[in-house]
């Protein structure tokens, strides 16, 4: 396409008249000079001049032929461009970089009111007479100089008139400026500037008329006899008319500075009901009707009817509602009885719905929509259809619902309630009651359904049942442990007697040692039972969990083996906890060993520690975790994982996923007992094929201001010489244990008096006139237990030394004693050496 040079304005042509005059004067001077000289001199000069003119003429002919030189007006090549620009409806002006006008079309001349033949001014000069336009004109001129595009709109009076003169309408103009770069084929090197001037008075008048109509519509809507509001999908009210604001006692000026939420003017159930309707999508507009109460600014309620309009296809702003006041004296659409029923229906905290013969929901209140999590209508093939309540509950509930609907259709009044779980949320449960209704012509409803959310009730029932089961098992385990400890004490003690009479070279020595070793293994099993029943003896102390885990890492690495990678992920500044160090180590080791067994082909075991704030504990969503500050110890493996039915049983005693012979089923039960006895919580999370995570939450220990750390005296080493002198009263209801203990102490040089019960011990003590140096007594005995015996004896002999023997924890009976009572404690089962050492230490104390 051939380049067309911009059309030049005829009012300012290029060239100079002065140069033409000078050229004419020069030629005249030459002619006069030649006339004054001789013929011989003038002839060669004339010939030379003619030759030069001939050469110039021939050159011009060739230049004109090839298009270098144009004869006539240059604008003849630009007639198309000029015609186009002259016929534009908006004014167009072209200037060079100095601001000189090169072209102006007829529309521009007309807009600025130029007379025929008048000089064309640039826009900055054409509109410079008005002081109100100084700033926009300056910005346009500056943009033209910088080669930027800019557009400005401003309001001016007609040229030659003032704003104050009446009867003259103001005019609106839009002036734009943009740079037009030079073209390489053009003989003009500098860029040009294109100005556009357009009168937009009519456009502005139309906009102002439309705005006026909108203002009138808003004013009408604000003062309409009905309320109106719109809200977005998040429940933020975008618009609230003045009528509704007046009903609710709200100040519209306050609403301009803050965002009002939908649940501030109605109950949450009502807001959820509108939200459920707003999430529907329909091929044609749908209007929903809701009768509910709005909440005024003073907290009182206002009965209203809301007509909710759902646009075609649904929109993000789901609430576009008309509100009709149904307060007394203004309820024109229904009688008082209907109004009262409607308000009770919608405000009821119990989910209520009406059902037809197929179990489809005809109407439902807000509580029903909240419980079942959806509106009462759905979609099928693009059309709105009713939802059957059977599709919302589990399969077992559907069968019972079908029978109940048959009874309701027959008018039966005694219909058993139906327990169900939701199809969409298996964790949510409820109980459904059906009541038959009297048949009315034109209606298909046969029953009213009342649904109650029983999720929390069921969780509480399961928790109580589990707690009772664990308590019963714990009591059973504790009782078994007590009896076992007595038997094991006798087995271990008499094994020691036999070992004293046999040398290691004797054939029977090895058999006796096997008996004692297996008795000690049984004692370990009993300790696990006591840990599960939370009746073991704990020695709590303030610990740093991070240091404890770090010290155990070497031992854990050996336990896990080479094919399992141990990874520690410890947080800094862990809070301290108060626990028994040995028992807490056992918790971590048991969890690590279980994780190892779940990774037979190797894997990774990670131990993660972290502080858990009270806010974070609330966000965890664990129902049984009391809000508070905890230290988390999490043991995670990449093993085989467990299905949900196994996770529910892992803390039960004697339950094991291992094959026969590889576990007692008390490992996690022991862990559970230790954690609970320490005041903590333990939870398991697992997924088959992806591993298991065991999370232990131990309560943070905060030292009291008056709590001063006391250095504990170092425990004295047991004396090598376990013989002694003194009188010992041995009280034990188990004959075998009493026989072993009496014989053991007698061999060590003590004078021993025996008693089978507490009452018998009092008689023996009186027979000896209180000349007893030490009492060694069992805790649990018939007729009179050990603590009661101690109170009786110390009533007359307050300095009497006492050693209690028990298979239960020391704390189990210590809480029943006075705070200042001093005694020693010997844990069953014990061997001969432990008994002698305890008695020796008591005499030396």
**Uncertain runs:** 1-14, 73-77, 159-165, 378-382, 660-665, 708-719
The total of helices stands at 25
The general outline is elongated
Residues in β-strands, percent: 15-25%
Q: What is the number of E strands?
A: 29
Summarize the main sheet. Answer: 5 strands, antiparallel
Distance between the termini: 119 Å
Mean pLDDT: 76
Q: Residue share in helices? A: 25-40%
Cα gyration radius (Å):
52 Å
Main β-sheet, spatial strand arrangement: 2-1-5-4-3
Q: What is the subunit organization of this protein? A: single chain
What would you note in describing this structure?
With 845 residues, this protein is of the alpha+beta class. 40% of the residues lie in helices and 22% in strands. The chain contains 25 helices and 29 strands. A five-stranded antiparallel β-sheet has the order 2-1-5-4-3, sandwiched between helices. Strands 7-6-10-9-8 form a five-stranded antiparallel β-sheet. A hairpin with an 8-residue loop joins strand 9 (301-310) and strand 10 (319-325). The longest helix has 46 residues, at 455-500.
